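Reviewer 2 asked us to include a model.

Predict the structure of this chain.
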Amino acid sequence: MGISALTPPLNPGDPLQTQLEFADNRILIDLCGEYDRNLARLENELGVQIIRRGNQLHIMGEAPLRARATETLEALYARLAEGQPLEAGDIAGAIRMGGARTGGEKQLEMFRAGQIEIRTRKKHVIPRTQAQQDYTRALFEDTLNFGIGPAGTGKTYIAVAAAVHMFAEGHVDRIILSRPAVEAGERLGFLPGDMKEKIDPYMQPLYDALNDFLPGKQLQKLMEERRIEIAPLAFMRGRTLANAFVVLDEAQNATEMQMKMFLTRLGEGSRMAITGDRSQVDLPRGVQSGLSAAERILDGVKGIRFSYFTAADVVRHPLVARIIQAYERDEQS
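Predicted model (structure tokens):
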């Protein structure tokens, strides 16, 4: 790994210090971040003090906190050593996972027979919380998966990454992404343009996810060949979706009848991922959400797994988690 613990520490005999030495200074620079901002974040999150001297980092604090900081630094250094970028979310994920290795030989076990990671042409996706880890494993192990939880927890993003990975590996022949064309509490009226131009605004989040994983020209070609499809839920009726990875996003806005219709489209060699947030239903008052109905009806059915997320799994801006928690407290009161 290129990291070694040194003795004695900065102040010999001080039991509240751990000292690490890094073999590659270039990787260490990326690890520390501009103006050591990554180290500052670790200090704030983990309650330790980190001093950088040359190719050494001196960690000061209580023993359990130093151990956690050491594991986190080692995991992040390993990620950089494997050529993967280090983003703010990766640091937060390493802290949440207690410094567990996020790449290489200790990467998440997705198949019981071996160890792999979600690799796509443009990006590697690594679960950043335990719930994400369990959900990712479920996507590769079970035929039909539900990911249910608040916004920003990576439900759809991970599902699309898994779809692109399985498509690239030849496990499925097509990717089909869908969501209900329901406005979020507004009435936009008639939209100009042809059918594609009318529905594209509703499908844009799915386009955004695909653009993260596939080069633009390849994505355009695959869509022209209809090997990747993005369509409203209403267009699924009458189809049999065989040898495909199918993702239904914003499933809380599907009616009970639509949900049953969608689930029964499942064909041979296909997998389905249904994602939704029960707190953001935009259906007309009095219309039951198909997602809630599916939870009740399909509970315990073999081959179907439900994965649940909470505000603790939010991987967007930290403020998003606090906003969700505030709304949950208000609902409970």
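The chain is about 40% helix and 15% strand. Residues 111 and 141 are 7 Å apart (CA to CA). We have added this to the supplementary material.
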